[in-house]
Design goal:
alpha/beta, TIM Barrel, globular
Length: 338
């Protein structure tokens, strides 16, 4: 049993914890197999996160959910999720994204808004709604990838949007922290942020890194990216900012299950996935500038991608624990002892 002092030290360590996850807690649609239509699944998933030691969850606050028609806002679903996470003492990194149908420049979700002012208005409403409850906000996801932002223009139009959202969000909640949309295409894209004048419009540098543990030891590649990002930041007089990896992970496919390979080749099995989790949360988190690392994902998906990506979770679709869950939990407990 903890003494009062020991409990406070443990709680303080937990608040500084680098342990995060990406999870699609807002998925209650046909296109995602209604992942969290059942409130019991949502509650159980969050309970398991707390058990594993998750300190922060990265999740979307979809524009199309929140403002399905211009000027008509519906926060009911997100109010419930935010309340549940806060009840379980799990922080939130909220992603402000993607284009809603009526405001898209091309009629699709992955095109920028036809008018930045429409997106800024939605962002302002969300930040105001959750002021004091959500501290961290990310503007879009992977804007350097043609999957999530079309057409690509070297981040020029994205950086304009980032600047406008940053200024608007800070007026509403000066204490909030803004992250750039997680960069998916390597260190050259970090350069583009600075080349396009975004230095003063994000508080934490946000990157995504994926390597297959079957191809080689991924840790040197992970560390090399972080060190190169640090150099770019230093060159731009921005060395005091922290770095968050808001997506890192690999499949963990149970032996005997046949599934198409993920984009980096053969699918690791559940034991190999657990080994990568252990490496990330014992070795990678020691990097000087790295503050938080989000495993993608917490729960497996059900045929959404049709590849090993559906098996990125620390828990399976039925919410049973994978070896990766136990590895993550052990790493968290070891972190608290340090």
């Amino acid at each position: 049993m903890f003494s009062g002092c020991a409990f406070r030290q443990n709680e303080e360590a937990s608040m500084k914890s680098p342990f995060g996850v990406l999870e699609f807690l807002h998925w209650s649609h046909d296109w995602n197999k209604c992942k969290y239509c059942d409130k019991k699944d949502l509650e159980k998933s969050v309970k398991l996160m707390r058990e594993a030691g998750v300190g922060i969850v990265r999740m979307d606050f979809l524009w199309g959910d929140i403002e399905p028609q211009q000027g008509k806002f519906d926060f009911a679903k997100y109010d419930g999720i935010v309340s549940l996470l806060r009840k379980n003492k799990i922080e939130i990194l909220g992603i402000l994204n993607y284009s809603t149908d009526w405001a898209s420049s091309c009629g699709k979700w992955n095109c920028p808004p036809k008018d930045n002012a429409l997106f800024v208005n939605y962002a302002q409403k969300v930040v105001a709604r959750y002021k004091g409850k959500v501290k961290y906000w990310e503007v879009w996801n992977e804007p350097d990838s043609p999957t999530y932002w079309m057409p690509q223009d070297g981040l020029k139009s994205y950086c304009k949007l980032l600047k406008e959202v940053y200024i608007a969000a800070k007026k509403i909640d000066p204490k909030c922290k803004i992250l750039n949309g997680g960069l998916a295409e390597g260190p050259s894209r970090v350069n583009l942020l600075y080349d396009n004048g975004a230095r003063d419009y994000f508080d934490i540098l946000n990157i995504h890194i994926f390597e297959s543990p079957l191809n080689r030891n991924p840790l040197p590649a992970f560390k090399a990216y972080i060190k190169l990002a640090q150099k770019i930041m230093e060159r731009n007089g921005d060395e005091n900012k922290k770095i968050w990896i808001t997506e890192i992970g690999c499949p963990g496919v149970k032996k005997g299950i046949k599934v198409n390979n993920w984009w980096l080749g053969d699918n690791p099995d559940e034991a190999q996935q657990a080994e990568l989790v252990a490496q990330v949360y014992t070795e990678l988190i020691k990097e000087r500038s790295l503050e938080k690392v989000f495993w993608a994902f917490f729960r497996d998906c059900k045929g959404h991608w049709g590849t090993g990506v559906d098996y990125f979770g620390l828990v399976r679709w039925d919410l049973s624990k994978k070896p990766a869950f136990n590895a993550y939990k052990k790493c968290y407990k070891d972190f608290l002892k340090e």
